[in-house]
Amino acid sequence: MSEENELILHEPQESWSLPSWYDRVSENDWADYEKLAALNYSVEEIALYYCVNPREFRRYYNMIDSPLQLHYRAGVLKEQAQEGFKMISDTYNSNAFQAIRLDKKRADKQFRNTLDEVIFNEE
């Protein structure tokens, strides 16, 4: 694993004092949490699902290197990727409707990537 990935994937900083509810969210290797994110539930709705004060949950979510944010984004990305894989498979099986959806999805993603490059100037 590269050094860059290690910085992203590490657990919360030792200086953080983890709240009592943190173990409920991270149990099952984050699987349920990532599924809720993939279903497009907001951070506040997920907090309520785990019976956590939404403001406190959001505070931990917004911390630098927050595993809450990392796993939320991973859950959304995994779902989008699975949908894209299915579209590609259906396109190869001569499904014209899926081919049109795939082209639109690619164009939307390219637009968002270009917009991020312009706004954040990531090189």
Task: Provide tags for this entry.
123 residues, disordered N terminus, mainly alpha, 7 helices
Order of helices and strands: HHHHHHH
Number of helices: 7
Q: Domain count, please report it.
A: 1
Give the oligomeric state of the chains in this entry, treating copies of one chain as homo and distinct chains as hetero: single chain
Largest sheet: none
Mean pLDDT: 81
Mind explaining what this structure looks like?
By secondary structure, the chain is mainly α. 70% of the residues lie in helices and 0% in strands. It has 7 helices and no strands. It has helices at residues 3-9, 22-26, 31-38, 43-49, 54-61, 67-92, 96-120.
Strand-helix topology:
Layout (H helix, E strand, L loop, with lengths): L2 H7 L12 H5 L4 H8 L4 H7 L4 H8 L5 H26 L3 H25 L3
Helix pairs in contact: 3-6, 4-5, 6-7
Short characterization:
With 123 residues, the chain is an all-alpha fold.
